[in-house]
């Protein structure tokens, strides 16, 4: 495991470029195995999840190269094989191989995935969708076995009981080559789903309605890549750096941004009193003065993203009064609270609410990044704090943030990654 060492208390300034969306990338890579040609992705983030997905691809004889932000995947010699359980268990999004393998081979065997420990994230809606498409699903010995009869998958009308990004994506992957038409109702509307549908449609898929709550998929026989797919900017990375810039910045410009994807987040920043300058594809954050407390409630898109409730917390600590965070998606996403306590933050959980009080002076401490977004919150707090902060399990931060150390260095931060034995890497 790695740790992040931060010598905090410095004001940061400059500009940085947001990378491709992690939550798109981890769906697009499994989707690539549906193609009958090699595929290319541009603006791929340099994160550990991408390297773990490459390991899973290699186990199926799907070769890939990753150079200069471009990932090339060749699924033309794909074989069915047991997927490496260690790589599967390292990231939650590996469950997209269920839908992709089902769409490719009409069967799939996948170990129950791992990833962040932020409370239960059941896959019952995924399984409901697969069954509606004609698959038989058996859960046994920590694995899911999915198969179809000789006729393969067929179109179906599927109403999701709860809005689920993962289930929406998995059903799309399974249905894109199924016979007939599939309709997904109460579908998730996230930009990453539009990104996936755009990629598949450019290869010949027939997907309509992505970005709305009703998606229709007419199955096709073949998918063939004709151009490089450029991944959309990461809205969660954008929000994280917006919070950082407002908390400890002396003027920071974020480039490669889609402001429309950030409206629920930037609305809260404006409500706090941050004078954002929002341009067509960039956002400038000037040095801020006094900030007002706000009430944050996470919702499905286009509401405030659950992945951003922890990264905004260090900014809420600067507000003059108590802010309240309600996470309706993952109420157990509170691992950062006890860690921020160690740094002197006035923050506590009360009746499923996270109450964040004014905390003008944070002190560096030894803390632990239990998952990606908790780690991001600790990273921002560490940069704002006096003294040295050591974040253990920093691999979790590296899983989700593209070249985070390089980007922080560009802003003037004093931060490094080291092993547990103090060996710098």
TrEMBL record:
Q: What is its EC number?
A: 2.5.1.7
* Annotated positions binding phosphoenolpyruvate: 22-23
Which molecular-function annotation in GO is an example for this chain?
Answer: UDP-N-acetylglucosamine 1-carboxyvinyltransferase activity
Active site positions: 116
Where along the sequence do coiled-coil regions lie? none
| Compartments in which it is found | Cytoplasm
Gene3D superfamilies linked to this entry: Enolpyruvate transferase domain (3.65.10.10)
Name of the top EC class for this enzyme: transferase
Q: Does the keyword Cell cycle apply?
A: yes
Question: What is the protein's major site of localization?
Answer: cytoplasm
CDD domains associated with the record: UdpNAET
What pathway is this protein a component of?
A: Cell wall biogenesis; peptidoglycan biosynthesis
Q: Which residues form the Enolpyruvate transferase domain?
A: 7-408
User: Record's Pfam families?
Assistant: EPSP_synthase (PF00275)
* Record field: transmembrane: none
NCBIfam families assigned to the protein according to its UniProt record, in alphabetical order = murA (TIGR01072), PRK09369.1 (NF006873), PRK12830.1 (NF009470)
Its name, as the record gives it, is UDP-N-acetylglucosamine 1-carboxyvinyltransferase
Q: What is the source species?
A: Lactiplantibacillus daoliensis
Q: Which gene specifies this protein's sequence?
A: murA
């Amino acid at each position: 495991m790695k740790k992040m060492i931060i010598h905090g208390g410095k004001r940061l300034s400059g500009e940085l470029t947001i990378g491709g969306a992690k939550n798109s990338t981890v769906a697009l890579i499994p989707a690539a195995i549906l193609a009958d040609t090699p595929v290319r992705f541009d603006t791929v983030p340099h994160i550990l999840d991408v390297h773990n997905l490459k390991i899973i691809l290699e186990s199926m004889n799907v070769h890939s190269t990753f150079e200069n932000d471009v990932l090339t995947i060749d699924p033309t010699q794909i074989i069915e094989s047991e997927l490496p359980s260690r790589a599967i268990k390292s990231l939650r999004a590996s469950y997209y191989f269920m839908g992709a393998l089902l769409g490719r081979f009409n069967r799939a065997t996948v170990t129950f995935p791992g990833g962040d420990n932020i409370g239960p994230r059941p896959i019952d809606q995924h399984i409901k969708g697969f069954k509606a498409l004609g698959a038989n699903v058996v859960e046994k010995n920590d694995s899911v076995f999915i198969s179809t009869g000789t006729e393969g998958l067929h179109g179906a009308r599927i109403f999701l009981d709860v809005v689920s990004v993962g289930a929406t994506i998995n059903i799309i992957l399974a249905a894109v080559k199924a016979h007939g038409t599939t309709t997904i109702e109460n579908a998730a509307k996230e930009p990453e789903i539009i990104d996936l549908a755009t990629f598949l449609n450019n290869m010949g898929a027939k997907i309509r309605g992505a970005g709305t709550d009703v998606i229709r998929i007419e199955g096709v026989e073949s998918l063939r890549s004709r151009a490089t797919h450029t991944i959309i900017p990461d809205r969660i990375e954008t929000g994280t750096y917006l919070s950082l810039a407002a908390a400890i910045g002396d003027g920071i410009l974020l480039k490669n941004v889609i402001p429309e994807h950030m409206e629920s987040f930037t609305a809260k920043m404006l409500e706090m009193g941050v004078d954002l300058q929002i341009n067509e594809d960039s956002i400038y954050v000037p040095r801020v003065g006094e900030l007002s407390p706000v009430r944050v409630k996470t919702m499905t898109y286009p509401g405030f993203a659950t992945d951003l409730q922890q990264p905004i917390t260090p900014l809420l600590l600067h507000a003059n009064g108590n802010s309240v965070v309600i996470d309706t998606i993952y109420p157990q996403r509170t691992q950062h609270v006890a860690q921020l306590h160690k740094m002197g933050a006035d923050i506590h959980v009360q009746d499923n609410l996270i109450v964040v009080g004014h905390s003008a002076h944070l002190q560096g401490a030894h803390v632990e990044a239990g998952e990606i977004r908790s780690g991001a919150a600790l990273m921002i707090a560490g940069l704002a704090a006096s003294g040295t902060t050591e974040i253990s399990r920093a691999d979790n931060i590296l899983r989700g943030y593209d070249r985070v150390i390089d980007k922080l260095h560009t802003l003037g931060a004093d931060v490094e990654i080291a092993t547990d034995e103090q060996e710098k890497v």
